[in-house]
Specification:
This protein is of the alpha/beta class. The protein has one domain: 3-Layer(aba) Sandwich (Rossmann fold). It is about 40% helix and about 15% strand. The chain contains six helices and five strands. The protein has a five-stranded parallel beta sheet, with helices on both faces. Bound molecules: magnesium ion. Magnesium ion binds next to loops. The site of magnesium ion has 6 residues, from loops.
Length: about 170
C-alpha cells in the first residue's frame, strides 16, 4: 500500500516527456509512493533543471522535438562529470534492439518500453530506494517489497552500478 512507504526516505525524481499526460501520469504514480517528483516537458528545460539540481532518478522519454532523449542523456552524463550521477531510465516507445543499444551508449542505465506496468515501476523504485538508502534494515525492505518486477531484472550485460537491468527484455 502506498501509505506504508511514506516513512521511507523519498527519492528525488525528474520526469521528462513531451506528452504532458504521460509525464504527469508517471509523476502522480511516483508521488503516490512518496517520491519527490518534478516534471519537464522538453529536453532543453530538462537540462536547465538538471543544472540546478541533480535528482536521484531521471525518467526520460526519447522521442521528443528539439533535444531528444539521447541528446539529453549524453549532455547530462557530460555535465555531471565526476559529480552526482542520477539513474537515467528511458521510458519510450523506441523498442528496437538498435534503440536499446543506442540508449546504453548515450548513458541510460535502463530502457523501459511504454506502456510500463505500474507494478514493475513501483517495484523497481523500491529497489532503487534500497540501493540508495542502505541503512534500511533488510527485514523492512522485504516487508515493503511489492514482489513484482524484481528478480527478473538480472542477467544483463551492461556493467554500471545499476545497469545489470539494462538488457531486460519486455
Ligand atoms: Mg515523446
Amino acid at each position: 500500500m502506498p501509505s506504508s512507504h511514506t516513512a521511507w526516505p523519498p527519492l528525488s525524481v525528474l520526469v521528462v516527456d513531451d506528452s504532458a499526460d504521460t509525464a504527469h501520469s508517471l509523476a502522480d504514480l511516483l508521488r503516490l509512493y512518496g517520491h519527490a517528483v518534478r516534471v519537464e516537458l522538453d529536453g532543453r528545460r530538462a537540462l536547465m533543471s538538471l543544472e540546478s539540481d541533480v535528482p536521484d532518478v531521471v525518467f526520460l522519454d526519447i522521442r521528443m522535438p528539439g533535444l531528444d532523449g539521447f541528446q539529453v542523456a549524453e549532455s547530462l552524463r557530460a555535465r555531471c562529470g565526476g559529480g552526482k550521477q542520477p539513474l537515467v531510465i528511458a521510458v519510450t516507445g523506441a523498442a528496437s534492439e538498435a534503440d536499446r543499444l543506442r540508449s546504453a551508449g548515450a548513458g541510460f542505465d535502463l530502457h523501459l518500453v511504454k506502456p510500463v506496468d505500474p507494478g514493475v515501476l513501483v517495484g523497481m523504485m523500491e529497489r532503487f530506494r534500497r540501493l540508495l538508502a542502505p541503512s534500511i534494515p533488510a527485514a523492512d525492505v522485504a516487508a515493503h517489497d511489492t514482489g513484482r518486477g524484481g528478480d527478473d531484472w538480472g542477467g544483463g550485460s551492461k556493467s554500471s552500478q545499476f545497469g545489470c537491468w539494462l538488457t531486460r527484455s519486455e
